[in-house]
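Take a look at the protein record below and tell me what you see:
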Amino acid sequence: MTSLRLLIVLAMVSLCFIVSCSSSKKQKDNEFLLIGMQGPLTGSIEYYGTQTLAGVELAVKVVNDTGGINGKQVKVLSFDSQGDAKQSLVIANDLVVSGVCAAVGEVTSGAFLSSRSAFNRHMIPVLSPGATAEGVTEGMEYVFRTTLQDSSGAPQLVDHLIDVKQYRNFAIIINTADSYSVSLGELFRQSLNKRNANIVAEARIFGEPTDVSAELKPLRGKNIDVVIYSGFYPEGAVILKEMQKQGTDAILAGADGLQQTGLTSLVGDLGIGTIYYAGFSPNTDNDLVRGFNKLASENNLVSDDLSSQAYDTANIILSVMKKTGITDCRVESRKKIKSALLKVRNYKGVAGTLSFDNEGNALKSPFISEIYKTDAGEYSTIVAK
């Protein structure tokens, strides 16, 4: 009996310790205004998540260094989803339980589509700095995005390729394992057809291949000016290497998944000439961008579309919280944040001027960039006027 009583006492003490620690942590977190962030911090596209987190943390650092929000410091709670749609939903529920005021959501469309409903259901504003697919905010009162939509970016890129670059013959490659790539590929096809461009070849890849020699056979021997790939830079690098092997003398083009910092790190000079649209360019000639570039450099951060849009996204959340007098993350405060976000008009950020429509979509223009190599041997981009 004595042993049993001792075990019971020890169990009760342990339970009290756990509850006390949990209560202490919750009390400590209550001293802050909590902002959530989730994304691929590890895995094949970890660059997307780490850059997004760095942009969010930079915005929060600047605000905290200048006094915080309404007398409180801001704290970022970040979770790694590895960009996986199923894991993303689990992580979203973790952030909901953590009691955040708002969240910077997944940067990729597929993961954001999976996780958005958890935030919406619990009335927590969530803003994606990168989900460009159609319909990601539709029917979701608390769901926003700060990047431009593919329905704006794809047609404008096609117009640039035809009207400015004078290209006429195109090939389209989609990744059938990625619903985002499939939908974006269809937008490119529609835009090319609308301009009566010649689609001389189409190819399909699956997942994250290391060899696409068989998949790219439809391109061999064809007169192709531009190969449009509607996916991300890891596969884009594999495609470029195969194009070189088979003698396909064409440039690669696509959306922000082909951004320069990721692509050239894998293929070097093969990436020169690649053209893509994005929500930001570090080479834009204005004071806001120059200021962000300087701030990013001082904090060992790469200035690109990911970090800049995350920086703007966090700043929009923080500015709305300050304007509406938010001092806690209760549901009434989150309702105020959501209502104020819907009223954002002509916000001048480092990634361009932004307004939200009635469904939480960002209204903004794309930056069309072409990769080149500087005289100093560094890779950079020229921004189309």
